[in-house]
Amino acid sequence: NDAESRIGEMRKAAAILDDAAYRRAAHAIKGGCGMVGAVELQTIANTMEVKGIEANHAATLDEFLLASKRLQRILVARMCRQER
Length: 84
Known about the structure:
The chain has 84 residues and is mostly helical. The chain is 86% helix and 0% strand.
């Protein structure tokens, strides 16, 4: 949920061309992903932090959200198997 909220912040920052706010939110996401071992998400967040707002930033934000949803599905599936 934190990452999704920060992605929203990043979309707002991009809309007003606030590159510093965009990079701060990406940095926070990267740290959170690193703490839980979400390497793919951490890598995408690192790219967002390093590149900042650029022409294809919306695609990168969407890519992050897709990867996040994929991780959520994996974790839910594992929890369901453990409950059996």
